[in-house]
Amino acid sequence: MRRSLAIILGLLFAASAVKAQVGDPRNDLSIGFSGGMGTSRVSFIPTIKQQMSLGRTFGLSVRHVSEKYFFLICGTQLEVNYAERGWTEFIEDGTDNEYTRLLRYIEVPFLAHLGFGREFRGFQGHINMGPQVSYLIGEKEVYGGHWNTANRPNGVTAQYGKATQNKLDYGITASTGIEMRTGAGNFGLEARYYFGLGNIFNITKKDYFARCANSTISVRATYSFNLW
After folding, report:
1. CA-CA 20 to 30 A from 221: which of 92, 171, 175, 188?
2. SS (H, E, C) the chain
3. How remote is the C-alpha of 183 from its chain's centroid?
4. Stronger pLDDT, 164 or 19, i.e. the higher one
5. pLDDT score of 18
């Protein structure tokens, strides 16, 4: 999975580099805002059963379009976002036990941007893909019900009371969306997936978990306007 994502990302950037030499040049700069909701989970080994965990996301973006190659509008996009991630456990022990870990991150994705459709008035679709780094700025454990740790699937309880050890997170993100481009700005809707390559806890031989990586799916509304 990691190798496939790396190959796709490399081909995308290579294609952008080639197009930069033969495309119709542009120099369009825009700034934007986004906000929405996401579902998240943490991929654990050993496995921890989880259910949907909702969180907010919002942020700023700067996009530079450098060229148009046939129907493709090519550029780059840099963002700074706030995002709530974490996991909510699916506990089947016949009680009302509940457990959620909320992780608050500042995210910085650097994306290759490919658009298609109308450049000015009308609809334009896009695909964004690239690396993302994030930094944990806060976390919270939420226990509910008559709390106990009996009868957990696989007997996994090492996560309880364990603070995140690796605040720096990194991975690959990809999104697709559509914008309605008007004289008053560009209004859009976007769906995004993040695949974490880092781990929130240490994973050395002496540690309990062999993997504990973030993943999120989010939907957000966007608004942007051209600076030039």
Report:
1. 171
2. CHHHHHHHHHHHHHHHHHHHHHCEEEEEEEEEEEEEEEEEEEEEECCCCEECEEEEEEEEEEEEEEEEECCEEEEEEEEEEEEEEEEEECCCCCCCCEEEEEEEEEEEEEEEEEEEECCCCEEEEEEEEEEEEEEEEEEEEEEECCCCCCCCHHHCCCCCCCCCCCCEEEEEEEEEEEEEEECCEEEEEEEEEEEECCCCCCCCCCCCCCEEEEEEEEEEEEEEEECC
3. 30
4. 164
5. 46
137-154 pLDDT tens trace: 999 999 988 888 887 767
| Alpha-carbon distances of 98 from 94, 141, 143, rounded to whole Å | 11, 10, 6
Give the pLDDT confidence score for residue 26 in this predicted structure.
87
Query: What per-residue confidence (pLDDT) applies to 13?
Result: 57
> Using CA atoms, how far apart are residues 138 and 164, in angstroms rounded to an integer?
9
The CATH fold assigned to 2-226 is Porin (2.40.160)
Q: What is the mean pLDDT of residues 109-126?
A: 95
Burial (0-12, 13-18, 19+ Cβ within 10 Å), 183: exposed
